[in-house]
Amino acid sequence: MGGSAEVNDGIPPPPLAVADEKELDAGAQFVLKSRGSWIHCGYHLSTSIVAPTLLSLPFAFGSLGWTAGILCLLIGAMVTFYSYTLLSQVLEHNAQLGHRHIRFRDMANHILGARWGKYCVGPIQFVVCYGVVIGCILLGGQCIKAIYLLSKPEGNNKLYEFVIMFGGLMLILAQIPSFHSLRHVNLVSLLLSLTYSACTTAASIYIGTSSKGPRKDYSLNGNVETQIFGTFNAMAIIATTYGNGIIPEIQATLAPPVKGKMFKGLCICYAVVLTTFFSVSISGYWAFGNLVQGLILNNFLEDGKPLLPKWFILMTNVFTILQLSAVAVVYLQPTNEILERTFADVKRGEFCARNVVPRLISRSLSVAVATIIGAMLPFFGDINALIGAFGFMPLDFVLPFVLFNVTFKPSKRGVAFWVNTAIAVVFSVIGVVASVAAVRQIILDAKTYRLFANV
């Protein structure tokens, strides 16, 4: 793969990097434009990681307990920050050699071989990203339904109707042309994530200190087997929450030279991560103990009756819905890039009729399919746990360390090689076991599955 003309530390790139710029496909030219600053990168990273899935972290604590929960949250933060930093360094190194990789599969192709990119990394990334889009659309529908039931407790509208409403919003947002065009949307998303996390934390503290709150019990539920599988399910939830899966695509939005910009963006992102993840998980688990539900917002209602002022629950859900739309459109970008590369003519203008019409149709169909799946499978949370274990775990907790060791070849006598290898091996094992635990949970819940169920 080629890259754009860059100047790194005052050294002009080799001729190959300049020549290949003219041969970039439509997906690279139109969707992954390289015009952003490190601040924009921070916005993109924050939206891709700090998503409403963090509202399930108290539930993960319910299967882990206080000590293991906080420890797993800390390890997740340290490992992913380190992982994304290494991945960025690999991208920068290859760019300096004239191979600027703007897609995960291109990077795997170049470093590990074409088969890895085509048959492993590319498909896994697509499933992960499209799975996130489906999950966001479903969760958005659930939040809209929660607002509906607050105003009309006896309402008869079904969940799939609200999922379709959210899908309609996504039809509009999906037409935003490029990843770089989302920079202002993702700034708003960053602010929204801080806002609904603060609201959730405040609500948990309020309920936990009032007589309305449940009796606090922090013991682990179930027998030993249930607790073991619950532990790995919780790890998959945490891995999914920290997961990104689109680091190369985000780094591709940076204007050259890119050296050091990704690290600054990661610092912005992880300041938001630490603030939101720990406040929500600790306050939510403290308030509800092992009664905490899969989505902490559901604990704010008891038998359909709000434990907080209705306006506060309404406001929190609105903030969550708005940020979900930003997260979904970010994770649509790899799909958009594939569609653009397939249907657009790179030799024609980005906004000419020849390219706009196929873009409108293909992106609309992509969102429509995701909406239909979300409406059909309201139990997608179980499937999402499997996607997290099978997808986010290898992409974010294993592959970056392998790519770094293969690229830089650190000495086997040094610490870096063995630390990277140990992390990759440990999380490979956790990923396999978490996948088994997720499949087990799907089998156990299968008796309650029904298409278009109103849950």
How is this structure best described in words?
The chain is mostly helical. 71% of the residues lie in helices and 1% in strands. The protein has 17 helices and two strands. A two-stranded antiparallel sheet has the order 1-2. Strand 1 (301-302) and strand 2 form a beta hairpin. Helix 9 crosses helix 17 (415-445). It is globular, with a radius of gyration of 22 Å. The termini are far apart.
Order of helices and strands: HHHHHHHHHHHEEHHHHHH
Overall, the morphology is: globular
Instruction: Report the radius of gyration as a whole number of Å.
Output: 22 Å
Strand sequence of the main sheet, in spatial order? 1-2
The overall average pLDDT, rounded, is 87
Number of helices: 17
Q: Considering DSSP H and I runs of 4 or more, what fraction of the residues is helical?
A: over 70%
